[in-house]
Amino acid sequence: MSAEAVRDAASKQGRRTPVGTVNVVDPHPLNWLYITWNTMEEPVRTDEKGNIAGAAMEDSFWEGATLVVKVREGVRFQDGTTLTAHSVRRAFDEVQKWKAPHPPGTYLNFHPDTTVDVTDDYTIRFNFPEPDGLALAKFRGFHIPSERFWEEEGFGYRKLGTGEGHW
Question: Can you give the pTM of this predicted structure?
Answer without folding.
Answer: 0.71
